[in-house]
């Protein structure tokens, strides 16, 4: 699944390896050229192209495809729009019901690209960006946090790859958020 496919730099090579690819881009021009590139590379049979918002693509196409195939094959979700990709991660929260999750053999591996700014441990900062959007820890689910390249002084592009888990797709909260919710509810009752 390619949430921000553009003209297909990830989707076309995957389709050439005979992988079923669902590729999406909100930009109508990118979508048009994605379809053109699929035909040009003779892989249109392996690519289904969509022209949707990334969140809608995840909540509709990705969800339905995973449910249809029950996660029998390992799948990947590529989110290569480093400036804003992490802000689309909440689309995975509450994606499946408990009954639906039980039917899925394997949830996908997520590869989200992001920029981290400042000095410090870039890998830790990138993982924190992801955790903040999902409101849960990814420490047990991380496959790799990879330095892609330096784009400016104190600004690096990173890729965080992690296994989507049941608790993530069911919207489980970190203990800190649970504690905060309890305090907020008590404060509301006092007023």
UniProtKB/TrEMBL annotation:
| Any one of the GO CC terms | mitochondrial matrix
Superkingdom, taxonomy of origin? Eukaryota
Q: Which PROSITE patterns match?
A: SAM_MT_TRM5_TYW2
Q: What is this protein called?
A: SAM-dependent methyltransferase TRM5/TYW2-type domain-containing protein
Query: Which controlled-vocabulary keywords does the entry list?
Result: Cytoplasm, Methyltransferase, S-adenosyl-L-methionine, Transferase, tRNA processing
Membrane-crossing segments per the record: none
What are the protein's GO molecular function terms? tRNA methyltransferase activity
InterPro entries xrefs:
MeTrfase_TRM5/TYW2 (IPR030382), SAM-dependent_MTases_sf (IPR029063), TRM5-TYW2-like_MTfase (IPR056743)
The record's listing under Pfam families reads: TRM5-TYW2_MTfase
According to the entry, every stretch annotated as the SAM-dependent methyltransferase TRM5/TYW2-type domain falls at 1-166
Task: List the Gene3D superfamilies.
Answer: Vaccinia Virus protein VP39
GO biological-process terms attached to the record: mitochondrial tRNA methylation; tRNA N1-guanine methylation
């Amino acid at each position: 699944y390619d949430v921000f496919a553009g003209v297909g730099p990830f989707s076309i090579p995957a389709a050439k390896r005979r992988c079923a690819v669902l590729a999406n881009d909100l930009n109508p021009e990118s979508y048009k050229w994605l379809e053109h590139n699929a035909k040009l590379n003779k892989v249109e049979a392996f690519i289904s192209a969509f022209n949707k918002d990334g969140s809608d693509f995840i909540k509709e196409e990705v969800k339905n495809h995973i449910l249809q195939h029950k996660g029998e094959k390992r799948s990947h979700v590529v989110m290569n729009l480093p400036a804003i990709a992490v802000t689309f991660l909440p689309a995975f929260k509450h994606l499946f019901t408990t009954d639906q999750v039980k039917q899925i053999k394997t949830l996908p591996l997520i590869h989200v690209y992001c920029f981290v700014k400042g000095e410090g441990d870039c890998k830790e900062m990138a993982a924190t960006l992801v955790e903040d959007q999902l409101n849960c820890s990814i420490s047990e689910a991380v496959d790799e946090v990879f330095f892609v390249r330096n784009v400016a002084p104190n600004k690096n592009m990173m890729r965080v790859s992690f296994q989507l888990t049941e608790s993530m797709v069911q919207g489980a909260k970190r203990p800190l958020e649970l504690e905060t919710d309890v305090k907020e509810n008590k404060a509301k009752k006092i007023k």
